[in-house]
C-alpha cells in the first residue's frame, strides 16, 4: 500500500513516515506542497496523510486537488488545528478522517486500517491484487500466493515484494530500495537489501524453474 505523508514540519513528516515504513507500508514524505503535487503526478497513492497548512498554503485546497487527481485515494488530516470550523471544512473538501496533534501512533495505524476497510468495500476484490504471472499479492488482506501455495512474509518482506511488483520489469537500485523500504540514507553501507532479496528468493523462487528475482550486475535487482 502506497502512502504519501505531507506535513508542515519536516521532522513530523519523517516521524510519521518512519513509523509507517516499520509497519510495512511503502511511504513517501515531504513538507513541500509543490513536491507533493509532483509526487502525485508520478505515483498513484492509496492514501495521503495531510496537514491543514503546508508551505504556508492550504492543505484543504491540496485535498480538493487530490480528489481531482485520484478520487479513490483515502485522505487523513493530521494537524494541530483544533478549530471545529477547520475540521468541518476538512471533511467537506474530501477528507476521510481528522486526527489532532499530539497523537498516539497506534491510533493513526488503526484509523488507516479503518479507511482501508472502507476502500475495500467500495472496490472489487481484483483491484486489491497485484499479479505477475502466478505470483499474487493482495495488499489489503496482506496475503501472498505463488500458484495455490500461500507464502508467509514478514512486514518488511511484504513491503519489499509489493514495491518490486508495482515496479516490475524495472531495475531497482539498492539505494532506491533502502530509501523506499527502510528509509536508510544512501551512504549507508549495510547489505540489508541483499539479505531481504535472498529471503524473498528463498520463499518465492526456490524449488521453481521459473524465477522472479534477477540480479543486474552493477545496478541492482529486477522482478520480471
Task: Describe the structure concisely for a colleague.
Pfam families: Response_reg, Trans_reg_C. This protein is an alpha/beta fold. Helices cover 43% and strands 24% of the residues.
Question: What would your notes on this structure say?
Answer:
- By secondary structure, the protein is an alpha/beta fold.
- It has two domains: 2-122, Response regulator (Rossmann fold); 126-223, Winged helix-like DNA-binding domain superfamily/Winged helix DNA-binding domain (Arc Repressor Mutant, subunit A, Orthogonal Bundle), CATH 1.10.10.
- It has eight helices and 14 strands.
- The strands form four sheets. Strands 2-1-3-6-7 form a five-stranded parallel β-sheet, with helices on both faces. Strands 8-9-10-11 form a four-stranded antiparallel β-sheet, covered by helices on one side.
- Strand 13 (213-216) and strand 14 form a beta hairpin.
- The protein is elongated and about 60 Å long.
Amino acid at each position: 500500500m502506497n502512502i504519501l505523508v505531507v506535513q508542515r514540519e519536516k521532522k513530523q513528516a519523517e516521524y510519521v513516515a518512519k513509523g509507517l515504513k516499520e509497519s510495512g507500508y511503502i511511504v513517501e514524505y515531504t513538507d513541500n506542497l509543490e513536491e507533493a503535487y509532483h509526487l502525485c503526478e508520478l505515483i498513484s497513492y492509496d492514501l495521503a496523510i495531510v496537514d491543514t497548512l503546508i508551505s504556508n498554503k492550504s492543505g484543504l485546497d491540496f485535498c480538493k486537488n487530490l480528489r481531482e487527481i485520484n478520487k479513490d485515494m483515502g485522505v487523513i488530516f493530521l494537524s494541530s488545528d483544533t478549530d471545529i470550523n477547520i475540521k468541518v471544512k476538512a471533511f467537506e473538501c474530501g477528507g476521510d478522517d481528522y486526527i489532532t496533534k499530539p497523537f498516539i501512533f497506534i491510533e493513526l495505524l488503526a484509523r488507516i486500517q479503518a479507511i482501508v476497510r472502507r476502500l475495500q468495500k467500495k472496490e472489487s476484490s481484483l483491484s486489491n491484487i497485484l499479479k505477475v504471472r502466478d505470483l499474487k499479492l493482495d495488499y489489503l488482506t496482506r496475503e501472498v500466493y505463488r500458484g495455490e501455495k500461500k507464502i508467509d512474509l514478514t512486514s518488511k518482506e511484504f513491503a519489499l515484494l509489493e514495491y518490486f511488483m508495482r515496479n516490475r520489469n524495472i531495475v531497482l537500485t539498492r539505494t532506491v530500495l533502502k530509501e523506499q523500504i527502510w528509509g536508510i540514507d544512501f551512504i549507508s553501507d549495510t547489505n540489508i537489501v541483499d539479505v531481504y532479496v535472498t529471503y524473498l528468493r528463498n520463499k518465492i523462487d526456490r524449488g521453481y524453474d521459473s524465477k522472479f528475482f534477477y540480479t543486474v550486475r552493477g545496478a541492482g535487482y529486477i522482478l520480471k
